[in-house]
Amino acid sequence: MNSLYIINNPQKLSEALPFIGENDGILLIEDAVVLATSDSAQTHCKNQFALEEDLIARGVKDKSQASWELVDYPRFVELTLTFDKSITWL
């Protein structure tokens, strides 16, 4: 069963990583999108996404790393339907 982990706080990613499998997905939203601008947010997960609107709102879209796929809100919804379940780390 593949899960989509939705992370909204940068500090929460390290808490979630032990539970995230290679075929799961990570979606960074809100303040957590700053992790997509740094090489330090390396994960073992193949499916890494960051909400583009939140990157724009924080003025860091141009700094996003290629390993993170930028998604819009319609794609966010699509991801929640693609994965078997969604888990939000608050």
Automatic annotation (TrEMBL):
Output the InterPro entries linked to this UniProt entry.
DsrEFH-like (IPR027396), Sulphur_relay_TusB/DsrH (IPR007215)
The identity of this protein, by name, is Sulfurtransferase complex subunit TusB
Q: What is the lineage of its organism?
A: Bacteria, Pseudomonadati, Pseudomonadota, Gammaproteobacteria, Kangiellales
